[in-house]
Amino acid sequence: MIHRARRAAAVGVLGLAAVGVAACTSGPPTPTDPVLAKGQQIYNNRCQACHGPSGEGLTAPAFYGIAERMTLEQHEAVIAQGRDGTRMPAFADSLSQDDIEAVARYEREVIGVRN
After folding, report:
1. Rounded CA separation 23/25 (Å)
2. How far apart are CA 78 and CA 92, in angstroms?
3. What domains are there in the chain, each with its CATH number?
4. Coil, strand, or helix at residue 32?
5. CA atoms of 40 and 78, how far apart (whole Å)
6. Cα dist from 59 to 49, 73, 78, 104, whole Å
7. 41-71: per-residue pLDDT in tens?
8. How is 38-75 classified by DSSP, letter by letter?
9. Reported pTM
């Protein structure tokens, strides 16, 4: 009987740990605004490997407070042109201006305020 109780407790603890890990590693829910949802899709495919699923910054800068650090136009320019001397590539040749705006808005309006 005690063995069963210990097993149940261990399973419960492991289950809670798994939920905690999933919550920490998953990105934000899909936005209802179609432009932000498009930005999220592009971000997940092109940006999260370096910036993290929630914009927390893995090998690249985090997005928390990005709107206070640069204007939307400056942000879009970084996405389009990249950043010299860093690993940030230019996306102007592979993303449309609408796509770049969607990603910048997602980074600013969703993950930039969420962290």
Report:
1. 6
2. 10
3. 29-114 (1.10.760.10)
4. coil
5. 17
6. 8, 24, 16, 19
7. 999 999 999 999 999 999 999 999 999 999 9
8. HHHHHHHHHTHHHH-TTS--SSS---TTHHHHS-HHHH
9. 0.75
